[in-house]
Structures are given as C-alpha cells and as structure tokens.
Design a protein that fits this description.
This protein is α+β, with helices and mostly antiparallel strands and 280 residues long. Among the domains are: 120 residues, Roll (Chitinase A, domain 3); 57 residues, Ribosomal Protein L25, Chain P, CATH 2.40.240. Helix content is 23%, strand content 35%. Strands 1, 2, 3, 4 and 17 form a five-stranded antiparallel β-sheet that branches. The chain has a four-stranded antiparallel β-sheet with strand order 5-16-15-14. Strand 8 and strand 9 form a beta hairpin.
Amino acid sequence: MVYRFKIIFTLVFFLNVIFILHCPVLPAAETDLIKPGDKVGVQFTCRFKNGEIASSTSTAVAGNTEPKSAIFLPRNIDDPVPVTAVESSKDLQPHNFIAFEDEIITQLSYSVTGMEMNGSGTIDLHADRITGLKPKEEFVQLARVRVRPKEMRMTGAEFKARTGKEAAVGDELTVNPEFSGKVASVSENEVLIRFSGQPGSVVDTPFGKGTIREDEKNYEIVLDAPVGKLVRTQGLVGRVSEVQDGSIVVDYGNPFGGETLTCDVKVEPAPAADVARAKE
C-alpha cells in the first residue's frame, strides 16, 4: 500500500513539474505578438522589383551605394514611424489621393499585426487602384515644355526670407536646380537675379531627361519623359501614360504606380511620446 502511494505521489509530482514548466510559455509568446490596437514603431526599407530602393526610414540608406529609384526621398531622422496595428485592410478608412510614404505606413498598419515585438521580416505590399476618381484627377496633363525666366526681380525682404541674409551683388540663388542664378544688382526697392543655362545641354529632372533651349527672355526645358516612367509630384507618385508634343499625361490612379514593394521591416515598441499623443 505504501509502495503504491509512493508511485502515485511521484507521478503526480512529475506531472505538476511539467505543467509548471510548460504552461507559462504560451501566454508569454502570445503577449509578444502585436495585436490590433497596439502602438508600435516601424523601421522599413522598401524596394521595387528591379531592386531600386523606393523608400526607407534609415538616413544611412541615402548615403550608401545601393541603387535608388528616381522617386526616392531621403529622411533626415532615424526615428521609427509610429503605427497603430489593425486587424486587416477592411479596418482602414477609404481614401482618395495619398502620399507614397503614407500608403506604405497605412499598409504596414495591418501587415505588422501578428508579428513579434522587436521582430523583423520581409513583407510584400501592393496598392489597389483608387476608385471614384474623375478622369481629370486620375490622368493629369502636364506641360512638356517648362519655361524659366532669365531674370527674376524681388524685394530685399523677399531675398532675405529665401536666403537668410541681405542681398549683395554676386550672391548665388538657386530657384531651379537646372539653372544657376546670381544677384546682378541691388537697389533700395529691388534685387535683380540673372540665371544662366547652356542651350543644348541635357539635364536631369523628376520627369526624366530634359534639353535646354532659349529665346530672348526665357530658358525652356523640353522634357523627354518616356511612357511607363514612375514620377513624383510632391508626395504623389504616378506613371507616365502618354507623351504628346506639348504635354505629358501622368496616371495618378495607383499610390504605388502599379508596382509591388518588397519591404524589410523591423517592429519595436512605440516611443512613449507617440503613445501619449495617441491617447489624447
């Protein structure tokens, strides 16, 4: 009888030990997973299918040798992007036009759900076409020939607001990267800036290569934007859909220009300040 009791006691003891050792594992793992409503910080680097970097939260990326897309904009801070996780894309509000980086962040808000906190992974993002747009909103016609005056006049106060200093003859002023400008004269009421360009030279523009030509008062840049090229107008990304003699038509109907992005993503706890702002 005593022997049987010892066997039963030993079995119960070992079962309890196994239960204690294994039961805490599942809840701990579950609490490390990102759930809908969690505030997190996200670092990402996204690439197009050709390998070019389209967007990154890392300032180091801007200075490395990896190929960058023409629409890439470098950041000046390394802080993670604050994101509130949602269950799925169905939990998002419908939107019209949205900036390229904002669409990335929007899609990451449901892509990171279920990931481990402080974890990392590779996520493919693909944006749907925006519905309900008017044709003139979706397909925007832009001038193919860009006109830049050879001279510009402004007040001394306007010059100082642009440059942070008083105007002096010989000072440089950049209004367009394609042309260099210098202060030609300064009077009590006016600052005169003259710009210079080399007719026939080819310059890089956000819409592709451009050739400079001139007339008596202006320089002109004739854009050679190939059909299919991704372009950026401020925050919006579009794709050149048509090129005519005097105009370019850009399709802004898809936030990613119809491309799929492959993003290397790291998730970390959101900074306390971001969490506090989200609760306000």
